[in-house]
Design goal:
The chain has 141 residues and is mostly beta strands. The chain has a single domain, classed as Porin (Beta Barrel). Helix content is 13%, strand content 52%. It has 1 helix and 7 strands. It has a 7-stranded antiparallel beta sheet, with no helix packed on it. A hairpin with a 2-residue loop joins strand 4 and strand 5. The radius of gyration is 20 Å and the shape is globular.
Length: 141
């Protein structure tokens, strides 16, 4: 009886530790379709939604397009349960773009927002984006 109780306690404890040590949000790694609805602050025009496809992983769960001409650096990144928050700074020909984002994963879906400030270029502007994502399959397909 004592052996059974000890084994049960060990199994429950091990399961608890594995759950507590789980790295990253509840997301399926692979190719994701990402839809972005952009709104420019101070301009009452609704812009058309944009769609893109990216590969996302536990190591890199931030949906970001790769722009070789821009110098982009993620300066902050935090994961709290299934929510990822970040701050990214991009520089391109004297223009600085600062994006602060937050998305919450739920397995094969995510939703969130990205606030972007553009300065140093011909005109400063602030945008607020709503993003949603859905898993499509493994990367490379």
């Amino acid at each position: 009886m004592e052996r059974t109780a000890a084994a049960f306690i060990f199994v429950v404890g091990a399961a608890f530790l594995l759950t507590a040590c789980q790295m990253g949000p509840d997301m399926k790694e692979g190719k994701w379709e990402i839809n972005t609805e952009m709104g420019l602050k101070g301009i009452p025009i609704k812009l058309p939604a944009m769609a893109s496809t990216l590969c996302l992983t536990q190591k890199n769960p931030i949906p970001q397009e790769q722009h070789p001409e821009r110098d982009c650096v993620v300066t902050e990144k935090k994961t709290n349960d299934d929510t990822v928050t970040w701050k990214m700074v991009c520089k391109d020909n004297g223009t600085e773009v600062i994006s602060e984002g937050m998305i919450t994963y739920s397995g094969v879906l995510f939703s969130g927002k990205i606030d972007t400030t553009i300065s140093g270029g011909p005109m400063a502007m602030t945008a607020s984006n709503t993003i949603t994502g859905k898993y499509l399959g493994p990367c490379g397909q």
